[in-house]
Amino acid sequence: MEYIVSERFYDEVDKAVKVFLEEEDGRKITVIHHNDADGICSAVLQKVMLEELNVEYEFICVEKVYPEIIQKIHSERHGIFIYTDLGGLASRIIAEETRDGCHTFIIDHHPARDVDGDNITILDPELAGISGDIFISASTLNYIFAQRVTEKIRDYAYVALLGAVGDYHDRYGGVLGFDRYVLGECVSLGQAEIRIEGMKERYYIKKFGEYADLFSRRLTTLGSVGYLKKGYLDGMRACFEGFDGKTMRKVEKLEEIKQKKFQREIERLSNGLNETEKVQWFSVENRFSPMGVKTIGEFCQQIKDMSFTRPLKYLIGFQDIPDVIPDLGRLNWRGVKVSARAPSTLERMILNGKVPGYDFLIPRASELVRGYADATHKIAAATVIDKGKEEDFVHAIEEVLKNEDFKAC
Ligand SMILES: [Mn+2]
């Protein structure tokens, strides 16, 4: 199976690898990676590459890059930094925090902000006009990068595929673009088989005797639900050795914890949410611990049409961000993750342009309380604010709605 993909982007990869090999020079390398399946697989591929280079390295798994985290990482370390499956949008702060004599690489597939600087290199397909959400996962990007450093990486092509599937890049019936190139590698190296089920491809990983999608789901559970317990380390190990009985039980346990915590929270909320004129909101504070802050989004999605919600009000959920990063220690900052969803009726009105969507509301409301809007779409969004600003944020949304220069389109 052969796939022709953008040659031009390969030039970008070549350039980044060249800088990396010049800068590396036996210095310590710190890899900062995301905690979902794609981020875990990216870390595994980096590990294989760094082992081959025989350099000292450290891995730091984070859910999101906040300024306080970036500052802590760079003030306590020297050498080479690799941010992967995250960092693209935070490139400016990362560049600022990279000290003289150090070099930072951002190997990400999320939309990135380009920055100039002698000691930062950004490798991101989005900057070359290639959708990182469709054609290339961070794991695939790391594979293509590492391929130019060591042949050894080809033994782990299947890990790149696991990451792509973990980010649902098979959602159109099969993986595409650069991810498909990696699939081709896996098939020709005898690591994976394509099986057609219904209208969809599934990828059978021969080494483990199971499907990539099931395997990746477990990685994401370990990394996100088990974040504060360093479940991502079990995930990394599983990518090399497969899931043993003990790790499988861990995954099941984490799923159970999630179900239980969700159920308990639903019971709590069944008395009704807090309400203002157009917003309904609640906070789970730290009751979702040890689960990561990705959980609040999933929870809002599950409850948005339940009987205790108002069909016409914007739904906002808050979850305290743990002030401990397992690989870093305690931070001097208390933050809250904000997730925004809409009940189906309101969702339709947003999509029909009758009322403002979150892509309009959340960046503006975040600005009013000096938060960092993150991923904003019309009917779903996330942002981060300082702890204690929850009610201010709700009022900021009301404020934006009152003063809206929003025109129904
Ligand atoms: Mn990813």
Secondary structure: elements and pairs:
Elements: H1 7-24, E1 29-34, H2 37-53, E2 57-62, H3 67-75, E3 80-84, H4 91-97, E4 103-107, E5 120-123, H5 138-147, H6 157-166, H7 177-188, E6 192-197, E7 200-205, E8 210-211, H8 212-225, H9 231-241, H10 245-269, E9 274-275, E10 279-283, H11 295-303, E11 314-321, E12 324-325, E13 329-330, E14 335-341, H12 344-351, H13 358-368, E15 372-376, E16 381-386, H14 390-402
Parallel strand pairs: 1-2, 1-3, 3-4, 4-5, 10-11
Antiparallel strand pairs: 6-7, 7-8, 9-10, 11-14, 12-13, 14-16, 15-16
Helix pairs in contact: 2-5, 2-6, 2-9, 5-6, 6-7, 6-8, 8-9, 8-10, 13-14
The protein binds manganese (II) ion.
Short structural description:
With 409 residues, this protein is α/β, with parallel strands linked by helices.
Provide an overview of this structure.
With 409 residues, the chain is an alpha/beta fold. It has two domains: 206 residues, inorganic pyrophosphatase (n-terminal core) (Alpha-Beta Complex); 133 residues, Diaminopimelate Epimerase, Chain A, domain 1, CATH 3.10.310.40. Helix content is 43%, strand content 19%. The chain is built from 14 helices and 16 strands. It has a six-stranded mixed sheet with strand order 9-10-11-14-16-15. A five-stranded parallel sheet has the order 2-1-3-4-5, with helices on both faces. A three-stranded antiparallel sheet has the order 6-7-8. Helix 4 links the parallel strand 3 and strand 4. Helix 2 packs parallel to helix 5. The longest helix has 25 residues. The chain starts with 6 loop residues before the first helix and ends in a 7-residue tail after the last helix. It binds manganese (II) ion.
